[in-house]
Amino acid sequence: MKFSAWQALLVAALCLLPSVCAWGIAGHQIVATIAQTQLHPLVREQLCSILPNYTQYPSHWPPSEDVLPRTHCHLAVLAGWPDTIRSRYPWSGQLHYVNPVDDHPPTQCYYGETGWTSPNNVLTSLVNYTSRVVTETGWERDMALRFMVHLFGDAHQPLHLTGRARGGNDVWVHFEGRKARLHSVWDTLLINKEIRELSNYTTRLPSGRIESALVGARYDPLVRFILKEGLGQPAIRGDVGNAWWRDESASWPACQGHASVSDAQMLEGEGQLAFSSMVEDPSRVDDTDLPICPYEWTQPMHSLVCDYAFAAPVPAWEPAPPSDGDDSEPSPIPFTEPELDVPEYVGRIERDKVIHKQLAKAGVRLAAVLNTLLLPDESVSTLSD
Ligand SMILES: *[C@@H]1O[C@H](CO)[C@@H](O)[C@H](O)[C@H]1NC(C)=O
Ligand SMILES: *[C@@H]1O[C@H](CO)[C@@H](O)[C@H](O)[C@H]1NC(C)=O
Ligand SMILES: *[C@@H]1O[C@H](CO)[C@@H](O)[C@H](O)[C@H]1NC(C)=O
């Protein structure tokens, strides 16, 4: 290793010691690291004019005649930051999720058709902070980028897209024998299980682009696994092989425009009060000049809440509170938290690669948006390895 001192600093900043760092940060760092691998080299360099200098690291990618390494800055270092300031700035809490009205997965799955409980949510804050990465300067721009990176992760965590039991925070389950909140199973425990159980991809991939974004974190093998087997990167002579998402990943960052909801409402019939006159069209949030469409992106992912996150053996309704004993009703059967590490729950999630895909989608979209916003027009946007 040529730059061991630098890498040691960066690794310290990435906070690899579980005892020191909240576990939940790994998901955000993985998303940021996947994004880092997909950034144009000029964008990586530009990050250093936004992020603080302790996120810098020297890299010999892209290869050049220069003897000196390029200076890049790493998105993962500050990906968890908005969680660390939540208690200091309580107003920022609601920016991490969205609560659709009438949504009670898995029995009733609504995502914006009847509105949101608050206009300040992960969808509107994604627009807000993405726009501010372009318009702000100095510390405000740095903060906007930290939020942007973080919120791309949150918007792809299915339980950040529902308000049932505070996004599963109030649902107690067992995971690998330990009592846990359903929310943290998805934020943390499933990801840690994937990291722990992956035994291959410990060696470097033949790609300077990818390897220069991996700085020695415990989740590096998982990032390589997702890139290689999910996205087919690095491609072999342009061929992505049998990558899991070979037919769809190129379209993940696209925004088709939001004609569908409005068209459906127009068809409701003449003379009738259109649905949109009572509840705002949920896709309105996508109506910006930015290359993002938070509603269009998250709307199909809301089905993961109903199909996987609140699927059996998670109870379809919150267990009844214990009765106070003086009434003649028979007391309810004591509730035992169900174990989720069973084939019908975790087995399905793993078979369908739900976690891997959400991490990949978030990272690919984040990088595409940053490449679009920060790349000078004249530069070519194709990536070489
Ligand atoms: C980082 O910036 C601070 C001031 O903003 C400066 O004191 C420090 O020397 C810089 N560190 C490096 C490694 O450039
Ligand atoms: C972002 O939100 C802040 C606080 O609500 C507001 O002052 C600002 O105008 C918003 N910016 C954009 C670009 O939406
Ligand atoms: C790596 O391990 C995973 C399971 O942990 C397996 O699905 C995959 O096929 C392995 N890949 C290679 C190239 O060995």
TrEMBL record:
Signal sequence, renumbered to the chain: 1-22
InterPro entries per the UniProt record, alphabetical: PLipase_C/P1_nuclease_dom_sf, S1/P1nuclease
The keyword tRNA processing is assigned to this record: no
Region of interest (Disordered), ranges: 317-339
Residue intervals passing through the bilayer: none
UniProt keyword Oxidoreductase, yes or no: no
Pfam families, sorted: S1-P1_nuclease (PF02265)
Any Gene Ontology biological process: DNA catabolic process
UniProt keyword terms in alphabetical order: Disulfide bond, Endonuclease, Glycoprotein, Hydrolase, Metal-binding, Nuclease, Signal
GO molecular function annotation: endonuclease activity; hydrolase activity, acting on ester bonds; metal ion binding; nucleic acid binding
Alphabetical list of PANTHER family matching this protein: ENDONUCLEASE 4, S1_P1 NUCLEASE
Family: Belongs to the nuclease type I family.
Name listed for the protein in its UniProt record: Nuclease Le3
Organism in which the protein naturally occurs: Pseudozyma hubeiensis (strain SY62) (Yeast)
